[in-house]
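Crash report, auto-generated. Payload:
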Amino acid sequence: MTYIAPLADIRFALREVAGQSDVAALPGYENATEDMIDAVLDEAGKLSANVLAPLNRVGDQQGAKLENGVVRSPEGFVDAYRQFIDGGWNSLPFDPDYGGQGMPWLLATAVQEMWQSANMGFGLVLLLNQGAIDAIQHHGTADQKATYLPKMISGAWTGTMNLTEPQAGSDLAQLRCRAVPNGDHYLVTGQKIFITYGEHDMAENIVHLVLARTPDAPPGVRGISLFIVPKFLPNPDGSPGKRNDVRCVSIEHKLGIHASPTCVMSFGDDGGAVGWRIGEEGRGLSYMFTMMNNARLAVGVQGLAIAERAYQQAAAYARGRVQSKDDTKPDPKPVTIIHHADIRRMLMTMRSQIEAMRGLGYYTAAAIDCALRHPDDAARRQAQDRADLLIPVVKAWFTDLGNEIASLGVQVHGGMGFVEETGAAQHLRDARILPIYEGTNGIQARDLVGRKIGKDGGETMRGLIAEMHALATELEVVPGDDMAVLAGSVETAARTLEEATAWVAEAGRADIGAALAGSAPFLRLAGTALAGWLLAKGALVAHRRLVSREGDPAFNEAKIVTARFYGEVILPPALALLGPLKSAGRTVFALAEEQF
Amino acid sequence: MTYIAPLADIRFALREVAGQSDVAALPGYENATEDMIDAVLDEAGKLSANVLAPLNRVGDQQGAKLENGVVRSPEGFVDAYRQFIDGGWNSLPFDPDYGGQGMPWLLATAVQEMWQSANMGFGLVLLLNQGAIDAIQHHGTADQKATYLPKMISGAWTGTMNLTEPQAGSDLAQLRCRAVPNGDHYLVTGQKIFITYGEHDMAENIVHLVLARTPDAPPGVRGISLFIVPKFLPNPDGSPGKRNDVRCVSIEHKLGIHASPTCVMSFGDDGGAVGWRIGEEGRGLSYMFTMMNNARLAVGVQGLAIAERAYQQAAAYARGRVQSKDDTKPDPKPVTIIHHADIRRMLMTMRSQIEAMRGLGYYTAAAIDCALRHPDDAARRQAQDRADLLIPVVKAWFTDLGNEIASLGVQVHGGMGFVEETGAAQHLRDARILPIYEGTNGIQARDLVGRKIGKDGGETMRGLIAEMHALATELEVVPGDDMAVLAGSVETAARTLEEATAWVAEAGRADIGAALAGSAPFLRLAGTALAGWLLAKGALVAHRRLVSREGDPAFNEAKIVTARFYGEVILPPALALLGPLKSAGRTVFALAEEQF
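Recovered output after restart:
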């Protein structure tokens, strides 16, 4: 089963939901003309479908292999990576001063969706590099930027994020890796685990960003600094030089993303890995936070991407597999299973949530662009607040859905779904990491309730809710049953989210335990409601196009049907989390540890 | 991580929810004294924990292997199987006339839960054998029973069910395997796929039950007959004789249950496999249906079992893993993660649904016993109707939850959950087959709505709902907040299920497409509501025990807290499926095939 980039859906979400033209009009994005964006999307679609997607199963079967300290990529990956960077794809959203193309994050997000749908095991190297580039861009010295950014932005070198240690996962305060000053640099020692693409054979150098403690640093998070530790120390001419004292000592045997080596990295076995501090001492963790929005958005987009891939495969199977008669017709002849009610329910559940995610994900990317580029201070600030609020929702809700939708993809295949050759199971295995890494979904829910709602008492959320009410009002006056149903569901979603937000804001002050016990259901309610709003917004555009006979009527009709299914079938159980999120605190803490 | 049979919870569900003493009082179950049942549970707990559970990971890692036509079990499996049958465990619920112990299905179900929790890959051979024994017991001739039942009931021989062919999965009408009369037997030819334990090295003979067509049989299901095709033809003295013309030609590479060989079986490559018809010509499929209740209950119990295993592992990890401070306390010291709100929410979600499933599963097993043994005709009929109604709910809802709970088990482990060595991921991989085999969950939902509600217009369901109302009334007058909350949630569940049932019954007559589009949400609503009733019933018992200072107060308190969590957190989103189940039909059929 191949992957075909859903360009029509992607363009619709970019233009009609996320406001592509507003983003393209921001200062600094002058190159992002409509033609240019279209061309980029077309070419990315080709590369993802023709080069990356066919390697997805190879990557799963062969996996990355560690042999004598060298990690070998699965067959075809080195060549695909070369094609990828030769095409200039890695540089799309980055600073033109260092070789980037300076395109909007909105476009980069749409393109990212395609890479991750096509081949998540491959796509991970891009995400990690993006995070490392962001960190150096924001916090590096001019020299550091000049040395590393051009290589990393072109993709000749890749970056990693070295955070986790065995005793320090979600709780980075427990870090023990050390960095001792030694002349113009530091010597870094210690062990890091779960390092994605910590070692591989696709790039000529690997730039590790490492969190470590300096001597005499205070305990806890304020003692943590960030260091650049390249695999090969750069020569004065910029080429990779002497091998640094850092190595991959083992790779994990994982449930999925087999192509992506998850490394145990050992720093300083021969005395200390040479590293250079980024920014000030003791601010390592706060630097990490500055790049987290992009990284978490990207992981959320992986959830969307794997869901899209699973959906395409399931829909294709359902169109081809003949089994049993149509229950709604007298004809006893077996039909393709796409005629069966429950198969359709599963496919609609998949596609409606995929489109919902796509709208919300792209909307969030547009907010990031706006926060970076908008000429007006207040607009920039509002956009930043919205991005900050939406990021944990995107990361957690998308990745939960990615798993649910990949599981539905298996189910549509029946017995064949459980057989690895079919490929549906790989998506489920690959998807399972997403709710865990880059901050578990529990951490995201805590961030949403504790920091984001806590920060402004729900003010930013109320700004979004006001727009939901406005859309509902707009929909109400449009004739026809579909728009009336959508008006009702957007209004109900807005009111429910309003009540939930008010409760969470209050509980966050009065009873943090209760607020956190309800944080995961709150996040799901919020994600489902907000994405439903954007889906309805798209449906209204589709309706107006149908009326004005603009565009493909089948496409526009499908947008309306899909939004209505979402409003009538997907939304109600999510809104019914209002009671649970308020009451979970009553029982969640009631049992003693030993009663579990 | 080991498995410990949750004997206290199992006993509670048997006695207080499923009515163990009523079942034990049925004619024919005289041996099922309380002491005997207790002893059986204790010993099953030991065997499952000490022998079967330690082989679970070995089975996953090594898998079953096909070499030169022989399937080799993973290390230790042959010996474990020998211990299992030497202990007489296989014969527990079967007919004493053929060496069985004639114990209630209720007890067999509780014991089955333990085998499946301990080692699902191993446990599958038992389930398949059980199904084959049932078929021969109900439909075989006296000679067939005498030849096969003693061997199969002891476990010396195992059985298989050969149904599926590549073009005939859910739709068995498409079967092509042939059986041609040849003297006193038939010659069977054709290929079967997805044959669980179709070949293995743990038993001295394998008895294949095969669906095939006789010459001149009509097309469709009425042309299908059932045949016994043993791997070795029995000698007159009952020992395995000549090798039959049936072989395993390949085994599937699957997502999970690696220890269980899923075979492609080829019949008659050398002219025809010798087989004997069971029962009448053309009734093969109806014979299959008669044994489906037990088989589907058993698969549902696998969902419960894998959930219990995942829960035990997650709870143990959460009690041991230290990470981050307690958000509800000022102390900055990191604590075990079981203190964190969202970890607790996940554990409570797991345990409350596990206890809910156990209650409903055992209740259904008790109904099967009652339907078999009750001296009163009307009581037998009512019990059979209830079992028939509940079976698709148990099969589908339990197995969906098995997957959701295994996935939560991975999540509680964080990054370690994604690493195969931890073992949490195996449960998720193993669980994924459950919603597929023995009738996909979509087929179960169709059975529930189309046949079971369709048969009596919802009368049997209304009988259960009446008992829900009665419990709510009983709970209302009990003092205390917990019982009041449970009274409210049981009453709301009863009313919602009542409305949903009425709608489904009506739609089933008026618009079968709409009824089927809502069938899966209806099944989930029904399962969640009915199991909530039984959970509340148990909580009331626990409350009374607390008041009368009977039993372990911590155990009784936990039962109440768990039921309340379920009522406040788990139930509302499931009851909110009422709207979706009614409205799904409006959009599910709206898109053309090519719009997907």
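Post-recovery validation: Residues 194 and 262 of chain A are 5 Å apart (CA to CA).
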